[in-house]
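User: Here's a structure from my thesis project, written as C-alpha cells. My advisor, Dr. K., wants to see whether a designed sequence matches the one we expressed. Can you design one independently, without my sequence as a hint?
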C-alpha cells in the first residue's frame, strides 16, 4: 500500500467525524435559537430587561440563566433548562388559549344582551 492510499483511508475515516461534529453544532445552534426565541416569547413586549425578568418569572429560572439564554451565551443548553423553558412556553400557550376562550364567552354574552335589547326596541317600534 502506498503512502497516498494510506492517507486516503485516513481521510475517509475523518469525514464521518467531521459530519458528526457539524451535525452536533447544528443541533446546538437550533437549541440556542429555540431558547432565545422562547425567552422573547415568554417575555412579551417591552425592553430586553423586562422580557428577561418576565421570562425568568414564568420559567422559574434565575434572571442570569434566562439572560444568557436570550443572548445565546450558553453554548450547550442543559436538558433540564431546555425542558423547563419548553414547559413554561406550553403553560403560556394554555393560559393564552384559556384567556381567549373566556374573552369569546364574554363577547358572546354581550352580543346576546345587545341582540335582546335590539329586539325589544324593534318590537316597540312595530307597535307604534
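Assistant: Designed independently from the structure alone:
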Amino acid at each position: 500500500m502506498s503512502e497516498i492510499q494510506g492517507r486516503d483511508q485516513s481521510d475517509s475515516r475523518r469525514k464521518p467525524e467531521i459530519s458528526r461534529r457539524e451535525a452536533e453544532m447544528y443541533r446546538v445552534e437550533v437549541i440556542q435559537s429555540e431558547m432565545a426565541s422562547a425567552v422573547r416569547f415568554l417575555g412579551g413586549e417591552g425592553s430586553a430587561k423586562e422580557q428577561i425578568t418576565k421570562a425568568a418569572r414564568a420559567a422559574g429560572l434565575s434572571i442570569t440563566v434566562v439572560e444568557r439564554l436570550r443572548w445565546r451565551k450558553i453554548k450547550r443548553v442543559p436538558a433540564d433548562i431546555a425542558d423547563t423553558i419548553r414547559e413554561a412556553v406550553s403553560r403560556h400557550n394554555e393560559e393564552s388559549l384559556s384567556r381567549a376562550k373566556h374573552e369569546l364567552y364574554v363577547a358572546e354574552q354581550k352580543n346576546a344582551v345587545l341582540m335582546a335589547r335590539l329586539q325589544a326596541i324593534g318590537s316597540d317600534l312595530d307597535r307604534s
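When you compare it with your expressed construct, this may help: The mean pLDDT is 89.
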